[in-house]
């Protein structure tokens, strides 16, 4: 059911939804592990879509952890609120995360997990989103996202990784997650 909704959104909103299928359980698990969600007190998810990674985040959260999801697609927001009634989902750009953290009574988050389709975004939008992530994270906080292996060698992907290196103190990546369509590499960055 969620995969069909995801495909519909991909077809009708190209450039907003970046894949024809939601993330696999293996990719979701790896990105959540890379962000150290299980050790975090405050977690933010950028672009949860239909909730494939959200499900892995919710499973990894410690009791009492603050979890905020930022989703710009109104159809996905409705679906997420129905599927995960206990989490806070804001219908807004992830660049505005610092505002919503403050509204929740916290200054910073420990982890940001991103499912955003970075390769589809303009340079100015990438900058706004990454600047919002850096502002939202506490010192030592971790930002984790993924890049499809098909786009990894492309100039836009290299530019994105260079943006991470310019903003974060440490950047790393995992092995290829072959059990995903398409296969992906998780990239993480520590503030």
Structure characterization notes:
By secondary structure, the protein is of the alpha/beta class. 39% of the residues lie in helices and 25% in strands. It is built from seven helices and seven strands. The chain has helices at residues 2-12, 25-34, 52-60, 74-83, 97-103, 123-136, 155-167; strands at 42-46, 66-71, 88-91, 109-114, 137-148, 170-177, 184-190. The chain has a seven-stranded mixed sheet with strand order 3-2-1-4-5-7-6, sandwiched between helices. The longest helix is centred in the last third of the chain and has 14 residues, at 123-136.
Biggest sheet character: 7 strands, mixed
Which parts are unreliable, with pLDDT below 50 for 5 consecutive residues or more? 2-20
Number of strand segments: 7
Strand order of the largest sheet: 3-2-1-4-5-7-6
| Overall residue-averaged pLDDT value | 89
Q: What pattern of helices and strands is seen along the backbone?
A: HHEHEHEHEHEHEE
| Class based on secondary structure composition and strand pairing | alpha/beta
Number of helices: 7
Fraction of residues in H or I helices = 25-40%
Task: Supply Rg.
Answer: 15 Å
Distance between the termini: 37 Å
Silhouette: globular
Percent of residues in β-strands: 25-35%
């Amino acid at each position: 059911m969620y995969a069909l909704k995801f495909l519909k959104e991909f077809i009708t909103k190209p450039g907003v939804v970046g894949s024809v299928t939601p993330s696999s359980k293996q990719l979701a698990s790896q990105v959540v592990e890379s962000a150290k969600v299980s050790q975090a007190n405050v977690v933010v998810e950028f672009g949860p879509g239909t909730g494939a990674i959200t499900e892995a985040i919710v499973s990894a959260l410690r009791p009492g952890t603050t979890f905020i999801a930022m989703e710009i697609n109104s159809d996905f927001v409705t679906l997420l609120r129905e599927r995960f009634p206990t989490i806070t989902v804001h219908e807004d750009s992830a660049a505005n995360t610092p505002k919503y953290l403050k509204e929740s009574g916290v200054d910073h988050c420990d982890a940001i997990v991103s499912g955003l389709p970075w390769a589809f975004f303009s340079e100015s939008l990438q900058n706004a989103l990454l600047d919002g992530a850096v502002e939202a994270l506490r010192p030592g906080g971790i930002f984790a996202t993924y890049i499809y292996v098909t786009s990894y060698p492309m100039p836009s992907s290299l530019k994105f990784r260079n943006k991470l290196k310019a903003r974060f103190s440490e950047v790393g990546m995992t092995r290829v997650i072959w059990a995903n369509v398409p296969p992906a590499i998780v990239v993480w960055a520590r503030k």
